[in-house]
Write a structure and sequence with these properties.
16 helices, mainly alpha, 297 residues
Length: 297
C-alpha cells in the first residue's frame, strides 16, 4: 500500500483509479454528480435573476419561460431607486457587523475559559449550552420578545434598537463549541511556555490563542453574519421603524404594496448579491475553519 493510500483515505483507492475503466467510470460519475448539484443549487438563483429581466406578464405566464423574451434591465434600476434597497442593505450590514463583533468578544471569552482555564463545572456548563441547540428557535421567540420590550431590572425597551438584534445572537452554543474544539487543539506546551515567561491568561489569549485561531474566527464571523442576514421573524417583531428595517423585512413589507412581480424579483436578486459575494470571497475560510481543530496531534 502506498504512502498516498495511508495518508489519504477516499472512497476509491489510487490503485483502483489506475485502471482505465474504473478511472473513466469515476470521472463520469463525479462530473454528473457535480452538474446535478450545480443545477439544483444554482437554478433558483438563475430563475430569480432572469425573472427580474422579464415583463410582469411574462413572469406570471404559464408555462413559464426560462429565457426572457424581452430583456428589461430597467427593472433593476427601478427596484434599487424606488424601494430604498440601499438603506435596507446598509441596515442589515450594520446589524450583521455588530452581531459579529459581540459574538467574537463573548463567545471567544466563553470558549477560552472552558478550554484553557477549565473552571469548576465547566463541562456541565458546556453540556447545558449544547442542550440549548435542541430547543426550536420559535419556542424562544415569545420569551425573547417579552425581554426585549421590558429588560428585567433595567426596564429598558429594546424595540427599534440594534441591541434587540445583537444581544439574542451573542450566546451561541454552536459557535462556542466550535471555538472550544479549536482551542483544545492548541498545544498545552505553548500555554505553559507563555506562563513561564510571565504571560497571564489574557496575554496568552491575545498573543498566542487568537493569532493561531484565525480560521475558526473567520468561520464564526461568517456564521454570525449570515444568521443576521437571513433572519426574518425576529427583526419583523423588534424593528418597526421603516428606516431601520432589514433587507428581508423590507422586502416582505413591499410584497403587500401591489408591486409588479418582475420588480419584486429584481429586488430579490439584488438582495441576494451581498451574501453570494460574501461566500465567494470567504469560501476557503469556511472550509478550512470547519475542519480546523478536528484532528489533534
Amino acid at each position: 500500500m502506498s504512502a498516498f493510500d495511508v495518508q489519504t483515505r477516499t472512497l476509491i483507492s489510487r490503485t483502483q483509479l489506475s485502471r482505465p475503466i474504473a478511472k473513466r467510470v469515476y470521472w463520469v460519475v463525479l462530473i454528473l454528480a457535480i452538474l446535478l448539484f450545480a443545477v439544483v443549487f444554482l437554478f433558483p438563483l438563475f430563475w430569480v435573476a432572469t425573472s427580474g429581466l422579464k415583463s410582469a406578464s411574462e413572469v406570471l405566464q404559464s408555462p413559464p419561460t426560462l429565457i426572457p423574451h424581452h430583456v428589461n434591465f430597467s427593472n433593476y434600476s427601478t427596484a434599487w431607486s424606488d424601494f430604498d434597497l440601499g438603506r435596507f442593505i446598509f441596515n442589515t450590514t450594520y446589524y450583521a457587523v455588530g452581531a459579529v463583533l459581540l459574538q467574537l468578544i463573548f463567545d471567544v471569552a466563553a470558549a477560552y475559559a472552558l478550554s484553557k482555564l477549565r473552571p469548576v463545572l465547566g463541562n456541565v456548563v458546556l453540556a447545558l449550552m449544547l442542550a440549548t441547540l435542541m430547543i426550536p428557535a420559535t419556542v424562544l421567540v415569545i420569551p425573547n420578545y417579552l425581554t426585549a420590550i421590558d429588560v428585567p431590572v433595567l426596564h429598558w425597551s429594546l424595540i427599534n434598537s440594534p441591541l434587540a438584534i445583537w444581544l439574542p445572537s451573542v450566546a451561541n452554543g454552536f459557535n462556542i463549541f466550535l471555538l472550544k474544539r479549536f482551542f483544545d487543539s492548541i498545544p498545552e506546551e505553548l500555554m505553559a511556555a507563555a506562563a513561564i515567561d510571565g504571560a497571564g491568561p489574557l496575554r496568552a489569549l491575545w498573543s498566542i490563542v487568537l493569532p493561531m485561531s484565525r480560521p475558526i474566527l473567520g468561520v464564526v464571523s461568517i456564521f454570525a453574519a449570515v444568521a443576521v442576514w437571513k433572519d426574518v421573524l425576529w427583526p419583523l417583531l423588534v424593528i418597526t421603524d421603516p428606516n431601520k428595517l432589514t433587507v428581508n423585512t423590507g422586502l416582505l413589507n413591499l410584497t403587500g404594496d401591489g408591486i409588479p412581480e418582475n420588480i419584486l424579483m429584481a429586488s430579490l436578486a439584488i438582495a441576494s448579491v451581498p451574501t453570494i459575494v460574501f461566500f465567494l470571497i470567504f469560501q476557503r475560510s469556511i472550509m478550512s475553519g470547519l475542519t480546523a481543530g478536528s484532528v489533534k496531534g
